[in-house]
Every structure is written in C-alpha cells, then in structure tokens.
Structures
1.
Amino acid sequence: MPLVAGIDSSTQSCKVVIRDAATGELVRQGRAAHPDGSEIHPDHWWTALQEAIAQAGGLDDVAAVSVGGQQHGMVCLDASGAVVRPALLWNDTRSAGDAEQLIADAGEGDARAGADFWAQATGTVPVASLTITKLRWLARNEPDNARRVAAVCLPHDWLSWRLAGHGPGSGPSSLQLLRTDRSDASGTGYFSTASGTYLPEVLEQVLGHVPILPAVAGSLEATGRMPAGALIGPGAGDNAAAALGVDARPGDVVVSLGTSGTVFAVSETPSADATGLVAGFADATGNFLPLACTLNATRIFDSTAALLGVTLAGLTELALAAPAGSGGLTLVPYFEGERTPNLPDATGSLHGATLASYTRDNLARAAIEGVVCSLADGLAALQAQGVRAGRIILVGGGAQSAAVQQIAASVFGLPVVVPEPGEYVADGAARQAAAVLTGQWPQWGSGGTEINAADGGAPEVLDQYRRYAGTYLTS
C-alpha cells in the first residue's frame, strides 16, 4: 500500500513519521533538534527537517506528505522569497505591549469594548503569542524591515512551500503559491475563524500595507507536489494536528499535560470569548477548536517530586496512597504566573495545612490535583462557550501517570481515554496526508486505556480547589 509522511515542526524539534496510508502502521521515523530561543531563522527548521527525513529513510517512496507546526510564528518574506529577518515565535513576549495597544485601539480607551471587537472579529483576544502583535512590533521597531515584507506566512506554511521546491530567489510569482489551512490561519489575529476569511484592514492598520498571505486550502485539498511527485497536504497548526492524531471528534475534549497544559475541544460552532480565557481557533477538518492554555503543568510534578526526594514514579505512588482531596491540603499551582485565568504575576500557594494533613502522600496528591483542577477550570471556560464535553482524551508526558489518570477521571467527572504514547502532531499530519491521497479520512485504529469516572466524579475536590485559586468562576 502507499506510504504517507507526517511532519511535526515544533518549537524544540522536528519529527517525521512514515505510515501505511491504509492501516496507519508506523513504518519508520526520524527526529532532529531545533535551536533554543524565541527568535529563530527559518533555515534552521529546513535543516532539521532534512536531517529528520534522512533519519527516517527519505521520502522517495512516499505518496503524500503533510506538515503540522508550531502556531503563530511570524515568517516574513521579501519580494524574492528570502526571509526578511529571523522569525519571532509564539513564545516571544516582546510584543505584549502591542497586544495591549491593539485592544485599546479597538476599544478607543475601553479595553472591554476592544476585547469584544477582537473576539467577534477573529475569535481570539490579542496576546503576545499571536502573529498580528509581532507584526505591529516589527512596524514600530524595524520599519525598514516592515517595508520589505512582501508576504507573511507561518512556520508550517513556509515548510510546505519549501517542500514544493520554492525558496529564496524564487521570485514574486512563487509567493502567490504559499498555502495554509484554516487551523493555523486562525491563530494569526488577522483571520476570521467564523467566516474563514482574512481581515486585510487589520494588516493595513498594523503593517502599513497588505502583504501576500497564503491561500487557505480545504481540509482534503492538495496544495502542491514535491519535486519527486509526492502530494503536499494543507498542513495544520500543532493543536489541530494533535486532534487529528488522536482522532478527536465533536464531543471530545483533549487535555494535554506537558510543560504547559492545554484543553481544547472539537466543536461544530465557533467561539468568541471576550474575557480572553478561550482562544477561538479552527480545526483541520472544517470544525472549530476552542482552546484554553495554562502555564503550569508537569513542571509542578517535577518540582514536587524533587522536594519530596522521589522520582516521578515515586510521586505517583505517594499520590495514590492519599485520599481524594489530599486530606484538605490544596496546592494552587501558579508557580510561573498563570494564563487561564490571566494572572501573570501570581505565585503558587499551599492551603489547608494541619498537623494531620501535612504529609508526603497528601502533598504529592495535592500537586497533581492542583494541576488537574486548573485544567478542569479551563474546561469550564470552554463549556461556558457552549462546548459539548462527552469524554476526555488525555495526552502528553504527564498523562502516563496512573495517579494523573485516576484524578483526571474523578475531577472531570467524565470518561477518560489515554491513547498509546506517540507523536500525535506528526501522526495527525500523516493522517491528513492519507486523506489528501485517498479523498477521505482513514479509519486508522487507535489503542489506549479507558478510565471511567469514579462514582460520577469528585466535585468536592474541585470545589476545595476553587476556594483558593482565584479562578474566573469565583472572581
């Protein structure tokens, strides 16, 4: 059967998986590192991609390929197709003031009105991660570079364009061949998630002119071919690709526990949250992907394990020995400030400590309960936008802990599915490549562990957490 390739160009690295288009069976894979930093020249992504492809045995026998990538990164090209300056990535915060000013400008001094404008126009209230804020920073701080910008694209758009044989020196006509998909476009701040169209007036105001933007391809549309003939799919932003990788559908909520925590759901209707808690993104299938993000997740587990002098496996063992609610001990995990809710200057805090509750077991469990409860508040924010939640798909490094799995099922009060560990973004891109090749989404099997909510959940644990956490539900 034909083979397809999925690429995940993330902040830290590039992964390539090659799978059987019919069965989804993994045939081979490769990986290469990206440089650290929040400002990276895109050439590094291209170099890493070539290394990962070589490690995966090449793409000569692959019939279709698709790229999933980190969202929001600002890639500016001049009229020749050359990169104007190193890309500012999602985690570059120098444009935080620009985000605030965009809201103020739209609200004419009333930030609430400005936030509502952006939520309704794009689905997302500006924050420093969005591309539009970085373009405003560029226009203010590097006006000569801003004037050179002939096209703006995102990391996955640029890599797909390069795979099609374009690049520096290709000339102005090649810029017209840039392509993206609605999931990645929805994270720019100049695209309407609800209508599926760009907002050129926003770019005119921010950059001073309207550059060429990648055409938005359909979810099963080939956007070109590699020189050797392989079809190139439309690609996707990393969260949307991960949703494809775990085959998330309407009613599914994906909870990811990594360095940060994300909660996103496949929804049939767009969201527009003026509070900024929920980003109203699109998915890669024609649906929508409302998302909430927390800054604090598995690092809390690492810190607590180090404090207790145990490994992460030992932390799980201690946590499973403690009762639900940790004997009244509550850890609010805002160790690095917080994004959901928006409390950038917050710190972590421990509550309910008594001579009886202050034990190693309870502290271990309180750390896990605190992180899971913060993500449950993220789900509540999604549900306030009308998201339907039927089950939780639990992914990320932290999802492999039995304590995390049990506490998640209890706190969320919903069935929890833990997929087999994998490269979910690359797998999702490969699944899209197979769909582009055949004209329909493949029915690849997906293994995993199912965990049912114990006795309808444990609302008292979440209530205990919310007494101290300062969430939007109690503020």
2.
Amino acid sequence: MVVFLWCFAWFALPLSRVLKRICLYIVLGMICLTSCKKEKQDTRLVTPWGEVQTDSIPVSDSFTLRDIQTNGEMIMLTLSGPETYYDYHGKGMGAQFLLCEKFAQSLGVSLRVELCKDTLEMIWKLGRGEADVIAYMLPDSLMKTLPDSILGSDSLKFCGVEGRWLVQSNNTELADALNQWYKPNMLEDIKQEEHRLLTTASVKRHVYSPFLNRSTGVISKYDDLFRKYAPLARWDWRLMAAQCYQESCFDPQARSWAGARGLMQIMPGTAAHLGLAMSDIHTPEPNISAAARYLQELSSTFSDIPNVTERQNFVLAAYNGGAMHVRDAMALTRKNGGNPQRWGDVARNMLLLREPAGYNDPVVKHGYMRANETVDYVDRIRARYAQYRGVPMGKLPSAGGSISPVAPRKAKKKYKYHV
C-alpha cells in the first residue's frame, strides 16, 4: 500500500523533483519501521519439544512459585561433589540434590540440575534468573556480599549453621515454601537413606554359585545365550558370563534401587534406547541380547582404543560408571602424563575423581564419581573371567588394584569351550 501511494505521487502528481525525493525518503523510512516492528513481533522460541512460541520472557525475569508449578519444572544450581550432586548409574545422587528433589516432588514438579564451576557462577546465574534456587551450603560470611537481586541472610535458614540455600529476592513465595516444608532432621535422614542405598540395599538378588557344574565346565544355565549373543560385541562368551555374575549373580529377577533389572542389570532408559520392552526385561534371552547390543555400542564409542583387551576394560568401566566419566578419567590421565589408552593408567587416575582436586580439574567435564566401585567392578570381572578360562582366580583385589590379563592355559579336561 505504501509503495502504491509513493508510485502514485511520483508519476501522477505534479510535484517538483525535490518534493518527490522527500516523499521517497518518507516512504523508505515507513518501510523500515514496519519491517522492524514485524521482525520484533515474529521473534520466536523453539522449545525442546518442538513447539514454537513468542519469546516474551526476558532473561532477567524469574519465575514465581506459581510460575514454577505451572511450568512443571524447578531448576537448581549446585556444584559437583559427593554431598551435592553426582551421577550414579544413571540416577542423580548427593544429599543436597536428594533434598531438593523431595521438595520439588512436594510441589508436584520435576527437578532439573545445572552444575556450575564455583559459587560465583551459581550466584551470577541465579541473579540473571537462569534458575530458581541454589542448592548448596553457602556460608553465612558470603551473605553480606550478595547482590540485591538475591535473597540473602534473612531467608532460607532451614539449613542452620551449615549454610543456606538462595533464591532471587523477588521470589519470597518460594523461600517461604521452602522454610515451611523443611524440618530440622530432613538433611540427616537424607544422608542415612543415601548411605543405605549405596551399601546393603543396592541390588536385591538371589546369590547363585559362580559355577553351575565345575566338573563339566558349565558356568550357568544361560551359557547357550552367552554363546549366541556375545559375538555381537566380539566378546568371548565367558567374559560376558563373568560380567553377568558380577551384575546379578545369574538371577534374572535381580533389581537395584536405581531401577536396573534382570541378568545384566539394564536401566529402563537404556532398555528403551535398545528397544527392550519392560515386560521382557526380566526374561533371560531379551535381556542378554540387549546387553550384547549395548556392549557393541560401547565398543564403538571406544573404538579409539586399538588393543582389544584394553578396550574391553574401558567398555566394562563405561557399562558400570558411564562413558562420560571414563572419558574424564582418560583426560586426567593424559594431563598427568599417563597413557589414556591403557586401563591400568586410567584406573589410577579415575580414583582421583573421588577427590575435589580431581573432579574440579578443568579437564574434567562431568564431576565427581564413585570411582572405586567402577575400578573394583572391572577388576572382579577380569578375575572371574580368568577363572572361567581355567586360570586360578586367587584372592580378589581391593578397589584400585588392577589385574593384568593372564594368558589362558590349555584345558586338561576332554571338553572344549566354544567362543
């Protein structure tokens, strides 16, 4: 329409060249303003769910308690560590996380964790409205230095002398809800529950013998399934059997508190990824088949490890502790002058991920790890695999003592193994 009026004025009206030039500038200005306004109106946000909506919330705005409940999610900031947050077999752990998770559940919302490198980053992100709460024991000495945008020393006293959680200063409803919800014994109860989960109640299973019939060389009644599916990962079936015994003691009904199930202790998320229905997760053949495909996938992930035996150790460690933690240990090994493709070197550096100097190192991307469990996991499977090959197992090592592969001896019995 604007262009039409300009054309009419230029050709139809008896105006001077100067007036026509002025009209041209006015029209061009109107076009620019219109396009800028349209561009501003069309600003959109693509969400992780694929929806496109108008981006009308500035970064500095914070969600009120009602906004959090309507949105269905609360975002917490914290640091990686054994007392705060860490990934354990695919589940978040750490007393501060578990406490915040229970509070989120009381609100009827999910909890998302954002890990920061230090307290300054947490405070900066909270001040910008990128999260709802800092779930970390911040000391009282820090309260005097907080910016006005963050709710400080007069609120969120529920953690007592150990420290305080923080929210934005305009989110008093959230602070009040936290203070009313928290009871003095909650933090200690959470720590005791976590300790119980990580010890005796980790896996519920019937403990079967590691040999069904030693005299005839039968390891378990699932040997045919190991022979059938271990080649998918290019593994000796006896190594897979040794891993299975470490996971479930050959009990197909075994389940852990974290949700892992079946002979190979497959997590629900991993089962979905592998196409294993939950209705089949306790059935031996689908469970072993899915585990073999997962081992094959992990073998591809660590295809940069040229030695086959070494790669198996890395795959076992990733199966137990997560590939991202294994890569962190490899990066730390490289930095400390070791060989990141040799499991013995990586295992020693993996144990450093239990200490702040290790999991806070700049080359470490995924934080704290209960590394002694993963190192011990690999060692025990290797020891039992040696036993299954006819090599005496001897005493099982403690966490951190890695066993070197032992060449198999010739079998004296008249049967032979099939690989």
